[in-house]
Design a protein that fits this description.
heterodimer, A: 5-stranded mixed β-sheet, 5-stranded mixed β-sheet, 19 strands, B: alpha+beta
Amino acid sequence: MIGQRKKLVISLTPTSLKGATVRGSRIVQAERVAIDASLWNQAWDQNFVPLDRHLRQLLARFAADAGRPEITLIYCGSQTVVQAHEIPGSKDDARRAALLKARESVGASFITDGVVLAKSAGKASHWIVLTISDRDDQTNKLYAWINRCGGQAVALIPEAACVAEAAARRVLTSDEVTACCFMGHGWSAITCGSSSGLHLVRGFEFGHRVISDVFQRALDPEGVAEDRDLGERAMFESGLPFKSSLIPEDLRKKVLPLVAPVLQRFCVEVKQTLRFGMPAGAAPSTLLLDGPGACIGHLPASVTETINMHVRLAPGLEPQTTQEPFGNGSTERACALAPARGIQLIPGVAIEFRTTRLLTRALVGGTLAAGVLLASELAYTIHRERSLEPAFARIAPRLAALTREEDMRAQIQDISTITGAVAAEVVAMSGPTPDWAAVLASIAAIANGHIVFDEIDAHAGPSGGEMRLRGACSGANDAEVSAVMTEMMRRLQVDPTVLSVEQGSTNRELAPDGSVIRSFTITLSVRPVPMPYEALAALAEAHSPSGEGVLP
Amino acid sequence: MIESSLKAVCIKAGAAAGLFAGAWLLTVRPADASLSDRTGLLQAQSRAIGEHADRTATADPTAATLEHLTAHAERFAGRLTLHQTDASIFDAIGSAASGHGVSVHRIDPRPTPRRSRFAPNGGAGPDAVGVTASEFLIELSGTYGAVVALLDTFQETLGLSRIVEIRLAAAAAGQVRGVIGLAIYRAPSDATIIPEPDEGAQDDT
């Protein structure tokens, strides 16, 4: 029932508060705080407030540096209901059915838990299920008490459950059918069975406290003694008065009449249980006494005569240690070191607290997970964006070149548009332009000793230029003059700057020396030449962004 | 009791969900959008670079074209804005003529300059160019060769000019005398003939 990790187990009885830290199957530390029995009587009615000091004192010994320790509480319930069920079916079905039956029988004001103890030895395919019920308000008081004093109650275990499970474990380890009575502080349990299954299990409210109370009353009839453990100590030291020679005679006389009916009641419980719980003739002849109550001196011998069975102590029981907190043979030790989870009553308020805590933890976990996911996604996105930087860096030079070229193209476009348009307008304003200097140079080349130009009149026109020449050609005779004139006309006609030549009027005269002088007029149509910036102007007309093939 | 606890936890869970939704909207979503933008930008730039590589494999180098065009345009603009006043033109004519041994007797501006209709942006604003054609009649004398050389020089010294009229007559001692009609095309020095490069173009990418 106690896991491998360190836990704190506290046992509450009317006379003491015992605590132990348990790790696995080992008691690490055990402490005991005595409780005045008078406080116990008020405790249930006052929500255990009178015991706050004791619990805080005990917790201080264990959990000075552990915050709010998780606590499993073993307690003596005054209204605990113990039931054993023999139910067919699977193990889980049997447990569920037993819980249903138990809850139905005790009502809604009880909380119930159950555990499957073993297979039934009497009926095939049946399971023996132990259920324990206790009032919800009572368990709530205990839960609140522990939490109020700085602990954290994780399970409440009635003593009845502890003694019943311990008694069952005892007989289930035996190969032969064995009967066992585990006597605790306030509860006892009788089981009968073997490793093949259980015949019966029964718990009843009778513990060694009943006997020790007899001793207390015998020693302190008025109830004025401060030592409330007086009777219990005398009981374990002296034993039952029937066979003991250690008990003082005066005490024997006081105790004997008081303890006889008490012991008789115990014997009747045992005898009737075995008689009605076992098939006729199947009851074992030996009864094992276990638990702290078994360590009362002369109890086996005293019981033997009454129940007519061999009674002996359970093997391994060490009477000298049962009175120590969580000592060997004690009820709380048997419960704390139980190999499997047993019965645990969990109050409704604890379930609510656990549910809320679980949901809160789930919420916190979910929030953290969502935060981690969010941060991861953000980091991954940023990482991916940063991983693009090398690619940007790789293309940066080529991109810069592209940008520069785009800029240049834009500039070409702008120059073509703006400058080209201005140039086009200049060309349009000026019109065709002849290369007058070239024409005049050609004329100068033609002029020689026979030809003289007297007047040159030229002007630019819409189709180029027109130049009118007036001059005279001289020669020894008409033939020579004609030849010179013809040569002049030929040279003008082949001149690249001249488009056409038109000869005008001529007039022949004789010079005083007899030579012939022929005056003439010639009209030249002069070829226009492109203006220097016509190519630039053509850019605007062509709307060419690049100007390719247009510029000279 | 359990229901109230559940309700409280549910409210907290809802608040936490809202908080994370808000945090997601404020952090992850902008980062994701930024990543998408950067990825798209990288793809677009890579595509543009690829297309540019294909284009430059077949086209002439743009830089050489721009350099050539700019030089051409600058020469054009320089000649168009070379002379801002008539006096400057007179000086240039006189200087050129004396350089060739030609005597300039008189320079007469024609009364009304012709004005260009061209003006970018509809003729308004700082980009308006306003090209003006001014005509001058130059009465001169000199040897024939010197006059011809002077006419050839006008193309360089007078900016954008055009000889519209030539009247020459032989004079005594191998000299010629006559009148040259000259049109000179001018623009104000502050006219935008060559557009300024766009400084911010490179930053935009």
